[in-house]
């Protein structure tokens, strides 16, 4: 089988990797079903993190890092969180999946701590909201 091809289980015809149906016999290919959360969640990328409220769900990546002998060591949080509160330097939140427990997600200015050498950099965040709760104003800005 050539690389990047799908083989139809009914007629054994090679099809493109992104095809939904066989080009020869119109047999539908099966795909992994989406989870209930993936079907019902809207990702909002453009928002002000200072306006987050208790109970909002966010997805976090990036953040502080350390460089030792030219090697990048990430030290920030990753995963999904539920917001508890917001302060001047970041977001206080509870972890949902990979990060359990309480976390302070840094959102302040980019600085380097002279004592430890850790670069404090803003985390990248997106807001997760149920599709039935998203209003038309938020959809226009997303």
How would you characterize the overall build of this protein?
By secondary structure, the chain is mainly beta. It is built from two helices and twelve strands. The strands form four sheets. Strands 3-12-4-7-8-9 form a six-stranded antiparallel beta sheet. Strands 1-2 form a two-stranded antiparallel sheet. The chain is elongated, with a radius of gyration of 22 Å.
Mean pLDDT: 85
Listing every helix as H and every strand as E from the N terminus to the C terminus, the arrangement reads: EEHEEEEEEEEEEH
Q: List unreliable stretches of 5+ residues.
A: 136-140
Count of DSSP E strands?
12
How much helix is in the residues?
Answer: under 10%
Secondary structure blueprint with pairings:
Layout: E1 6-7, E2 14-15, H1 36-40, E3 41-44, E4 57-62, E5 65-68, E6 71-74, E7 79-86, E8 90-95, E9 102-106, E10 111-112, E11 119-120, E12 123-130, H2 136-141
Antiparallel strand pairs: 1-2, 3-12, 4-7, 4-12, 5-6, 7-8, 8-9, 10-11
């Amino acid at each position: 089988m050539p690389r990047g091809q799908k083989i139809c289980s009914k007629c054994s015809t090679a099809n493109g990797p992104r095809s939904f149906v066989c080009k020869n016999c119109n047999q539908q290919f099966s795909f992994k079903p989406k989870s209930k959360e993936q079907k019902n969640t809207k990702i909002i990328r453009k928002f002000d993190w200072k306006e987050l409220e208790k109970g909002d769900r966010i997805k976090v990546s990036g953040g502080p890092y350390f460089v030792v002998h030219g090697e990048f060591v990430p030290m920030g949080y990753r995963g999904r969180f539920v917001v508890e509160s917001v302060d001047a330097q970041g977001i206080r939140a509870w972890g949902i999946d990979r990060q359990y427990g309480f976390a302070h997600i840094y959102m302040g200015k980019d600085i380097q701590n002279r004592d430890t050498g850790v670069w404090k950099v803003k985390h990248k965040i997106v807001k997760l909201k149920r599709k039935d709760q998203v209003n038309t104003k938020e959809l226009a800005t997303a």
